[in-house]
Write a structure and sequence with these properties.
CATH topology: Rossmann fold
CATH superfamily: P-loop containing nucleotide triphosphate hydrolases
Bound molecules: adenosine-5'-triphosphate, magnesium ion
Radius of gyration: 17 Å
Structural class: alpha/beta
Number of domains: 1
Number of strands: 14
């Protein structure tokens, strides 16, 4: 089974985790559960073989309970040297956390590592004003598959933001997996613009509490069929299971 085929639950509409070479987006208002959703998805989707690097500019305790005692680094050199931990949390100090410094680190990660997951908890910290930055853009474009003449390397870029307008457009257009928590009506409208006509359902029955819609970009879907967004909620007691509301 490849990482792409790993899913939470068993039915076609159960929640798929992004595979390497696929990108994902999680949006939702403050406290709607984005970080928790990303942790659940990453815990389920990152096989033992792959590393996941988390850009945690806010200092979220939740990341510390990811599987396998994640490493916490506060300096870029810590990331560069860490080839052993499956989950690596990067919490830059004041002198390392400008958007340009973080963006440079993304490029470095891409050039140094093959096959890595990269979760950015707050996109505005990397691309302020949603202006695409070179490192983020390069990882998105090349991460779907980079070939160095001998081997292919893939990345999964998972972009998180309270508001969709804080993620550069190609963060959405390159994404296959969308996890959409509650949003203001205006922001839901923006989201629907990316999800397409089938998204009326998200306006009619918006997610509440920690619910979210999962939408898969059909242009990249393996069976080519069109599915409307589906509503899920994680049951934290039963770990890594999602139920259709
Ligand atoms: N499915 C869930 N069931 C129960 N509690 C949840 C669930 N998802 C998240 N929570 C809880 O809700 C709170 C907010 O979740 P989380 O930090 O993931 O939100 P967020 O959208 O990332 O917020 P922020 O925008 O502030 O980063 C946390 O205490 C978290 O444990
Ligand atoms: Mg969060």
């Amino acid at each position: 089974m490849t990482t792409t085929e790993k899913s939470i639950g068993v039915r076609r509409h159960s929640l798929p985790a992004p595979g390497l070479g696929e990108h994902a987006v999680v949006t939702g208002q403050n406290g709607s559960g984005k970080t928790e959703t990303a942790c659940q998805i990453l815990s389920a989707g990152v096989g033992n073989t792959y590393q996941a690097i988390i850009i945690d500019t806010k200092g979220e305790e939740r990341f510390e309970s990811l599987p396998g005692e994640p490493a916490i680094h506060t300096k870029p050199r810590g990331i560069r040297a860490d080839g052993e931990h499956q989950f690596i949390v990067y919490r830059p100090g004041l002198e390392d956390n400008s958007p340009a410094q973080i963006d440079t680190l993304l490029l470095e990660v891409f050039n140094q590592r093959r096959n890595v997951y990269l979760y950015i908890d707050e996109m505005y910290q990397v691309c302020p004003n949603a202006k695409p930055t070179p490192g983020y853009g390069y990882c998105l474009m090349q991460g779907r598959r980079r070939w160095d003449g001998k081997t292919a390397s893939r990345m999964c870029i998972f972009s998180g933001s309270q508001r969709p307008v804080w993620i550069p457009r190609h963060g959405f257009t390159e994404a296959k997996h969308f996890y959409i928590h509650s949003l203001s009506e205006g922001d839901m409208d923006v989201m629907c613009g990316y999800v397409g006509r089938k998204s009326d359902i998200m306006m009619e029955a918006p997610p509440e509490g920690h619910e979210f819609y999962y939408y898969e970009n059909t242009a990249q879907s393996r069976d080519g069929k069109r599915y409307p967004p589906q509503k899920f909620e994680f049951d934290l007691e039963r770990k890594q299971e999602a139920k259709v509301a």
